[in-house]
Amino acid sequence: MSVPMISLIALLFAILISVVFSSLNIGALAIGLSLIVGHYVGGMKMDAIVKGFPTSLFLLLAGTTYLFSIASSNGTLEKLTAYAVRSVRGRAGLLPIVLFFLAFGISSMGPGQITTSALLSGPAMLIADQMGISPLLMALVVGNGAQAGAMSPLAPPGIISANLLGKIGLTGVSGYLWLNMLIVHFVATAIAYLMFGGLRLWKLAPQGETVGILEHKVEPFTPKQLMTLVGISLLIAMVVYGSLPGARFKVDLGFGAFAVGSLLVLFKCADETKAIKSMPWNTILMVTGVTVLVNLMSDVGGMDLFATLIAKMSSASTVTLVAGFWSGLVSAYASTTGVILPMFLPMAKPLLAQVGGTDLLALVSSIIVCGFIVDLSPLSTTGAVFISNAGPKADKNRLFRDMLIWGLSMSVVGAVTSWIAFTLLRLP
């Protein structure tokens, strides 16, 4: 059996074990499997395997959860939650809708889906905890909203896609791709809203902690909490500015979150020991560990096995369906921006020529949309930040499994939706 095939089997084995034995951290298992598959089977040097550790992802997760742990430990997030609940007068069904469009707007301004999800996941997941909203529903709604804006001409994925498509002669389509992302992600969000209790939230009277927030006056923010809000707002402003074309400086979200958090601790706005202890280290290990195995799989050619299947399984009328499905399935385990876009987009034109198709925009739209629609899987950064910031009442192991199932199922739902929208209905 070839090493690429063994790497695929190893990843499937890790996922299966994590579903059956929920108490086992899939990240630790994945790192162990990387040693066996990469070093002992594939003959790779350990340095090459270690390079697969996602340092930037670790810093992003650790930095944002560090900052929001500080904001949580000093009561800032709880007070924000109280004001948010009062602003909708306890109508829990309205909050996910509002947050979807808020996430879409912020993501479209330039930060993109990962940064937006990382910024909103903390307060959004705490709101879900306080108001009795399903953490799965809240994660899917806010995450999909952020991803819907990822193809904005100002967002990193939109810029990367425009550059790659320009090399194959497809230009001036950024607006269409942005709209197509919104269409499909809105459909996915509507499905999630109906499936996971969105309508039921409109029928429930405020209760529990929500009643307390509604019946009692919310105290003004303390000076320490105001400093925390200023710090978070300043970070958001710098990240948004840095993502704009021609910006004179850029701010990495992970490093920036550590810097702002450290300043808040320096000014005694929070107890750092308490904040660090409350960080979701188990989840961070879970996500980064799996990424090590995914990167190993890419290095040994496991990802290429998926790509070679596409041309063999496609026809002119089904190429968007098949390519979208495989784009989504691979993206469930690999980075959409870092793997799917550079691997699949340059292949679109020759693939279309091979099967006799003519609508390049439809194929490209399907590849991009399906690559992103699965990214609420916990194996992707966007999904990971919501699990990391899930409230204290949430069962994170269950949330991990549910989001994994959702992400994998979206490889089918996204492909069918894209095929109907872009091939049959010929939407933009």
Please give a structural write-up.
- This protein is mainly α and 428 residues long.
- It is 75% helix and 0% strand.
- The protein contains 22 helices and no strands.
- The longest helix is centred in the C-terminal third of the chain and has 29 residues.
- It is globular and about 65 Å long.
- The model has no long low-confidence stretch (mean pLDDT 83).
Can you write the helix and strand succession as a string?
Answer: HHHHHHHHHHHHHHHHHHHHHH
Global mean pLDDT: 83
Which structural class should the secondary elements be placed in?
A: mainly alpha
Number of strands: 0
Total of DSSP H or I helical runs spanning 4+ residues: 22
Q: What profile does the largest beta sheet have?
A: none
Query: N-to-C terminal Cα separation, in Å?
Result: 44 Å
Spans where pLDDT lies below 50 across 5 or more residues: none
In percent terms, what proportion of residues is strand?
under 5%
The shape, in one word, is globular
